[in-house]
Amino acid sequence: MLDACASHLPMWTEWGVRDAGHLVHSIGCTLLTAVGRDLGFAAVSEVPAPRLRILGNVDQDVRSDSVWFDRSTRQPSLIAEFERYSGKQKDLSPKVETLLLAQHRWECPSATLVLAYWTVGLVTLPDHDGLRSVVRGGFNAASGVRVSGNPSARILFYQFVVRAGQDGLLRLENILRRGDS
What we know:
alpha/beta
């Protein structure tokens, strides 16, 4: 995937970007969607999940950072979130909840879930098993509605490691698969 990033987004791997606003988030979402397209999916960024049945009223809007649609079934095969991680589990837990809720709303329990997080350098890793348990066991939404878990869900974790250069700009250094159990 690092090669795909260098090809699609040289500003992140070669030129460097500022850590300003949502710039790195936008680049990460763009990369996830570009890789999906490279692999033959109809991939889209910032996709609102349909508001169906009882879970249609849980939270206002569930927008996934990238969704890869299978061209033959027209259903999501992969739902992804991309988030900054500075060593606080609380930054990632809501993203995992969003992934599970999106999977329910799309009614695609077999869609692969991806939580991609970016870090400046190597930091203490999040509790991947704890995040996985949210997907498998479910959670209580702020509205009080119980969002059931999906014990058979497949969730993958990727760490995007960036480093600041002497010019102060961030460059993507590595993409690591994490949390395999």
